[in-house]
Amino acid sequence: MKNELSQQQVAQYRHDGFLVIEDFLSTDELALWREALDAAVAKRNGNKMPDRKEVYGKGDDADKAYYDNVFDQLINLWQDNEGIKQIMLDERLGKMAAQLADVDGIRIWHDQALIKKPWANPTSWHLDTPYWSFSDRRALSIWVALDDATYENGCLFFIPGSYHQTTFENPGIGKNMGAIFTTYPEFKGSKSVAAPIKAGSCSFHNGLTIHGAHANMTPGYRRAMTCAYMPDGNTYNGIQNIISDADVANIKVGDLLNNDRLNPLIYSRTK
Q1: Tag placement on the chain: N or C end, fewer CB within 10 Å?
Q2: Is the pLDDT of residue 210 over 70?
Q3: What are 227-255's pLDDT values in tens digits?
């Protein structure tokens, strides 16, 4: 794993709000991640989360049929698959996230398999953090390609530097590819940057960086394994998102999100 970040890479991430790392995983590591994902998907049997089929706050009724064909989304695979758990709780990943975000500690918010099936719809321009149950401008995600992510099958695109100006307003992922530019018209004329990457490569992006993905115009799959990271010390903002009904009943706005059963601390600079 190419887990050592240079000062130049950190500076690039903080300038652009995203960073691509080619050949992030070794051949053996890539095989291990693929094997773990295949097992986790089979075990999940169609459920998006360990305890339910749907995810709070994703899409709306009018766009559900469209959204369901953007990608197959399986969340918190680490909670019910030992192989994914070993991968996701790797301290090296947490340290990289902490270095890029310039924070002392990193917790997993959720992992996420994003699988574009053959002929899947595009992923419209969107932000990530506004979906989540905390509000932190430093939150970020890793996106690891388990198949080549190409122009043809749905590679990511980013609007460089957008995270410096975006807020927690978000029109969501619907049918309109450019809906976000009604919320952020200042970026309507911005030049996007494509991030086609080979299997085993990865990208990091800030949760307030505007990003999206092409449709899958091929008969093959585009699999990616991702993880959203929450800087340690964040508090509940009232958005349920992935939190279960049982757990959300026991917290109130302003409470610390520090339950290691739900959001394990995978790296701490002070440990």
Answers
A1: C
A2: yes
A3: 999 999 999 999 999 999 999 999 999 99
- What does each C-alpha distance from 98 to 94, 112, 141, 270 come to in angstroms? 6, 19, 11, 12
Q: What's the one-letter identity of residue 155?
A: C
Q: Which amino acid is at 241?
A: N
Out of 21-35, 50-64, 95-109, pick the least confident: 50-64
Q: What is the DSSP string of the chain?
A: ---PPPHHHHHHHHHHSEEEETT-S-HHHHHHHHHHHHHHHHHHTT-SBTTBSS-TTSS-GGGHHHHTTT-EEEE-GGGT-HHHHHHHT-HHHHHHHHHHHT-SEEEEEEEEEEEE-TTPPPEEEE-SGGGSSS--TT-EEEEEESS-B-TTTT-EEE-TTGGGT--S----SSS-TTTHHHH-GGGTTPPPEEE-B-TT-EEEEETTS-EEE----SSS-EEEEEEEEEETT-B--S--TT--HHHHTT--TT-B---TTTS-EEEETT-
Is the pTM higher than 0.85? Answer: yes
pLDDT band of 23, cuts 50, 70, 90: very high
Tokens standing for 233?
């010390």
How far is it, in rounded angstroms, from Cα 25 to Cα 232? 26
Partner residues linked to 160 by β-bridges: none
